[in-house]
Write a structure and sequence with these properties.
The chain is an alpha/beta fold. 36% of the residues lie in helices and 18% in strands. The chain has 27 helices and 29 strands. Helix 2 packs across helix 19 and helix 19 packs across helix 20. The chain binds one RNA strand of 87 nucleotides through helix 7, strand 9, strand 13, helix 11 and strand 23.
Amino acid sequence: MNNTEYNFAEIEKKWQAYWAEHETFKTDVWDFSKPKFYALDMFPYPSGVGLHAGHPEGYTATDIVSRMKRMQGYNVLHPMGYDSFGLPAEQYAISTGHHPEGFTQKNIETFSKQLKELGFDYDWSKMVATSDPAYYKWTQWIFKQLFLDGYAQYIDMPVNWCEELGTVLSNDEVIDGKSERGGYPVVRKNMKQWVINQPAFAEKLLEGLKEIDWPESTKEMQRHWIGKSEGVEVKFQIVGGGEFSIFTTCIETIYGITFMVLAPDGQLVQDLMPRIKNQAEVKAYIDETKKKNDMDRTELNKGKSGCRLEGVTCINPANGKEAELFIGDFVLASYGTGAVMAVPSHDQRDFEYAVAHDIPMIQVIDGADVSQKAFEKGEYLGKGCKLINSEEFTGLTVEEAKEAITAKLEKMGVAKRTVNYHFREWIFARQRYWGEPVPVVHTDDGKIYPLPDDELPLVLPELEDYKGQGGKAPLENATEWKKYDRNGVKGVRETSTMPGSAGSSWYFLRYVDPHNDKEFANYELLKHWLPVDLYIGGPEHAVGHLMYSRIWNRYLYDKGLSPVKEPFKKLVHQGMILGENGIKMGKRFPKYVVNPSDIVKKYGADTLRLYEMFMGPLEASKPWSAAGVEGAFRFLKRSFRMVMDQPVVDRAPNADELRLLHATIKKVTNDLETLNINTAISQLMIFVNAFAGEGKELPREAAETFVLLLSPIAPHVCEELWEHLGHDHTLAYEPWPKYDEKHLAVDEVEILVQVLGKPKSRIMVAADATEDAMREAALADEKVKAAIEGKTVRKVICVKGRLVNIVAN
RNA sequence: GCCGGAGUGGCGAAACGGCAGACGCAACGGACUUAAAAUCCGUCGACAGCGAUGUCAUUAGGGGUUCGAAUCCCCUCUCCGGCACCA
């Protein structure tokens, strides 16, 4: 035995060069003759630090599937690109005065080089970068359509303003009143804003969730984010003139109203101000609320703060009774109507408020004691509880009352059924430089003029200073660029740019046709390639990117520009790779941070790929193990030597060899399809344990099949072995091995015999033995006889080919 | 608090309601070697035995369904992720 050295560095270099030279993975998107498979990774932000250990995990998984699909005869599209607008490049520009473009370009090159070293089968000719004007031309174009169709609007609204960053942030960029990046304080402030009307898509987005194969947790998060609630909007008359509406999902409790609460920062309380007797107190509370907005509100609201509006009452339309008005900061001006009816007996929040402000309560639903805490809808719904103290509705069940009360109020003309969403406008502009300029002009006569298509892309101007002055957008510094005077249109360009999520909201459409300069993508191609068959990415995008992408795509679908309602058919989140200490890799424990490039240098890309896939289930978080990497490396070395050094013989495999071979094909094929890659690798290890050994011969069929099965996971070494086996072409398009059940069949099987569920013996029976034969054989077994000695056999359960369970006592 | 997911050897983990712990790591014993590394073979829940084997325990804890439960149902605890006054 000559013990050929596994020189992974040379092998990997050789095959990466081969793939590049032969354009092995270039996809002819116009080839519709084969079934398509579109595998997609969430494209990275090209940061200066390069890849981390988590990147290869998801990327390897899609790579494995796309390589297998290609071998199974699919035309595979597996592209990669960069979400290249973002804050680090902007900060670099501010501190150095250089254009972020160069910095970004350099990072893209570093990333691409690292990704190529991992041997992914990306078609690099399809690469996109969101900061490339040829790309963002179409981001701007889609935005323009959204504007023309009324979905993108320029409106006055309260925003999350971060003074330190000098920009507006979306809700998901604010955590506990601080900015996600940097942790700077964020305040609420009214500003003219570009927004996208996402509530207009709420129903369609909810509907779409039903048809896609996504993790349940992610779908649930999206449902929550949309936050649909069905209820009734009811008009209340104010004593002495005026009216206001409230929204409730519990109309059945309307007879339990003892007070009403308005949002302190709403318009209504301002309108009522002249009639309020304790104005000083009310104004003080309102001021306090405004200050509170930038603090951790939950901390401050242990007790239910608020203030009575003395001298103002309203009439409950259901029974004509008067109710007092309050303001309280638990009522949000931006949700519902900015006013609520308060039923302390049946809402814990109202209960606490009533206790704090000494307000009476009326129980209207029977079935619990409400002296200590409220009897809430979660507890009474669907339990057949009945109404009390509710005039003609007393005695009805809650469900009946919901309908009857709504009907009565509708008849009176004071109520209508409504749906409310937690989902608000998506704020779609940032006071930053490194983003897509919003392609509109504010004309001198006060109108908004979207740029004509031939002026797109509207390219970012070079600046002397990339920092905005006094919280203004950096593009305000571009005094010449800003001025607009063409074709009789005079005005000033919009100076805010789009948020980071703009470019990533449609990149999956562009990959199909990335060089098209006539349209964002050819519809025929989209129709063939969409939806994405497999999308893998981190769970941190569960509501952000994955929601925005669905919105943009759905808009384009409604417009006839995207062929599918939902862009991502199957979504999988890879789990986080933790440090060896079991804690998230990061600055806190630098010695536990793993750099994939180091692993590639020491063990090769194939080992890194194999190890990351063997660590455990793809979706699980799992700690890194340096020893585990050694194990993966050992397996590849063993596999390598098995094929290189053992005699490969042309005899047909014997029955035992065939059985293992076909069992391996079956398990690997099924497991890769379902992304149980760790168990597919286990099976390949079992195969090697059986076939590898000094002096053992390797039937050619077994050798070739093994190499093909391992190739999606460890492509470089397998190409090398394939070549060694006498092939002069890449194995990337070799037909994927097929298994035949007939080779898996056995004549005799070992079955277990249990007595009262306890294993007692194992016996051999014919594979197709009938239940009677099994029972007979089991009862004839010596050990079984001993176990049931002196007992009466009550029942015998037989499971064909598996076991016999004797119930005896 | 609410929603989602998870809890199995020393560790990462396997297991259509049917022999728990496949596969890998670590550990231990052995072969090869002057020696080490690499490699190969073996052991690896506990107890007894040289051994085949036997006995016992066992899938966070408690209850239930079932001939049979890691797996299904109910309750409790712990951990992770998300949301958090949404009317």
